[in-house]
């Protein structure tokens, strides 16, 4: 459905839909033709798989996550610690976080996705300042933006 909608909006956009779960075994094949990987996943273990695959392919990854009225965005380039700077590289990352209790108002994913899109445009155009080694935390409930510097 999404591929059909994208083609209707802009016929120049090529979408290759895949109906499968992301695994360590299929991640590299799913990402192989991408220029930028965008994280829109809902679990830390899947995000770890995505980051490892993007790193192995030498691709940038734009991370985004939501929980309630809060979101976070970060751009991870090959060689960056990225998500592992936040969560460690434990084999058993928790499947779900606080979003399970907080829910997700419709505006939160739109806000995070818009910021991720800006990061993708900056990557593709080679302009602007990326959120590299920096985590942007957006609190829409209180109208606050916080930047957390991560070790390079």
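Sequence proposed for the structure above (152 residues):
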């Amino acid at each position: 459905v999404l591929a059909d909608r994208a083609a209707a909006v802009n016929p120049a956009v090529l979408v290759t839909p895949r109906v499968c779960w992301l695994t360590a075994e299929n991640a590299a094949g799913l990402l192989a033709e991408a220029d930028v990987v965008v994280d829109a996943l809902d679990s830390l273990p899947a995000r770890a798989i995505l980051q490892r695959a993007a790193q192995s392919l030498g691709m940038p990854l734009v991370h985004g996550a939501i929980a309630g009225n809060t979101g976070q965005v970060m751009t991870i380039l090959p060689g960056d610690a990225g998500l592992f700077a936040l969560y460690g590289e434990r084999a058993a990352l928790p499947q779900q976080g606080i979003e399970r209790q907080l829910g997700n108002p419709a505006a939160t994913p739109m806000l995070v996705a818009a910021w991720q899109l800006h990061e993708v445009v900056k990557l593709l155009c080679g302009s602007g300042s990326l959120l590299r080694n920096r985590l942007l935390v957006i609190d829409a409930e209180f109208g606050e933006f916080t930047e957390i510097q991560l070790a390079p």
